[in-house]
Design brief:
Layout: H1 4-10, H2 25-39, E1 44-49, H3 55-66, E2 71-75, H4 82-94, H5 106-116, E3 122-126, H6 134-145, E4 149-156, H7 162-170, E5 174-179, H8 184-197, H9 201-206, H10 209-219, H11 223-243, H12 255-264
Helix pairs in contact: 1-11, 4-5, 5-6, 10-11, 10-12, 11-12
The structure holds adenosine-5'-diphosphate and magnesium ion (MG).
Length: about 270
């Protein structure tokens, strides 16, 4: 027998699917900020925030929405291999593949970009930029100096990386957009809308305010943590649904199940 919770669980598998994007107050404000910034004569824009605050999905949305109006490119996971990165840049800038076994001549590429100034405006979205080496960041800066290419640099902010990030990017021509964990209202909207989008009306309604607050307390409004928690909650529901249906309340998700999930994920300790 399949359980409805099995399908509900899959709603919270962590993924970057632009069709699953949800308009939230904070993401809309960050999106508009980003849109405003790329219209300004800036060379670089920094998108900053802890893991799981929605940076990647925001960049994907931007690339998707602007693809018919602008030359916009999303660079996903960076290769720490300089050669591979230059290949990718070369292709985007020249619209040509580099012949095999040829090295990109970096200063020629910079000169090429300088000639593009005023003719083309290319936007490159660099996700996970903390993985680029300082040397690669320097190369990126040189390309941005041509003013034909604008970079949106997305950076994970972690406890011990805060300083490095700030120092490295301090002196630059940045405009900084910061993404934060969700507010309670955004968190609640996120959980409800994710479920409603896939037609899980009853399940969405079964999550009441008190339980929502508990989830928010566990996850602190981090979207990735929210995905993990909801997945685990529905996993437990699925088990009960199949094995001990008396332990489940279909109209009111029990607080106890949220606590069990919290325990499993280490938000609380027994
Ligand atoms: N506005 C949103 N709409 C839909 N899902 C979102 C939204 N913001 C965040 N998420 C979800 O949260 C998860 C983490 O977001 P992500 O963009 O990967 O964060 P980051 O890149 O900052 O680590 C994504 O897998 C996605 O499922
Ligand atoms: Mg990301």
């Amino acid at each position: 027998m399949t359980s409805r919770y099995e399908a509900a669980k899959s709603v919270f598998v962590d993924s970057i699917d632009i069709d699953d994007y949800i308009e939230l107050e904070s993401s809309l404000s960050a999106y508009n900020q980003l849109l405003g910034s790329i219209e300004k004569p800036l060379k670089m824009i920094l998108l900053f925030g802890r893991p799981g605050t929605g940076k990647s999905i925001l960049l994907n949305r931007l690339a998707q929405n602007l693809k018919y109006q602008k030359e916009i490119h999303y660079f996903e996971i960076p290769s720490t291999d300089k050669r591979e990165f230059f290949y990718k840049l070369f292709k985007v800038l020249t619209k040509k593949d580099l012949p095999k076994n040829t090295e990109v001549n970096f200063s020629a590429l910079v000169n090429y970009c300088k000639k593009l100034r005023g003719k083309r405006e290319i936007i490159i979205l660099l996700d996970e930029a903390q993985m680029y080496t300082p040397q690669m960041m320097e190369n990126i800066r040189l390309i941005a100096d041509s003013r034909a290419v604008k970079f949106v640099v997305s950076l994970h902010q972690t406890e011990d990386e805060d300083l490095i990030a700030k120092e490295h990017f301090q002196s630059r021509i940045w405009e900084v957009i910061e993404l934060k964990n969700a507010s309670f209202t955004d968190f609640r909207d996120y959980v409800h809308k994710k479920l409603l989008k896939k037609n899980f009306f009853e399940i969405a309604n079964s999550i009441k305010e008190r339980e929502m607050k508990k989830m928010f307390a566990f996850t602190k409004g981090n979207y990735r943590e929210a995905n993990k928690l909801l997945f685990t909650i529905f996993e437990i529901c699925e088990y009960y649904d199949k094995n001990e249906p008396s332990k489940i309340n279909y109209t009111h998700l029990p607080q106890r199940i949220i606590e069990m999930a919290g325990l499993k994920l280490g938000y609380i300790h027994a």
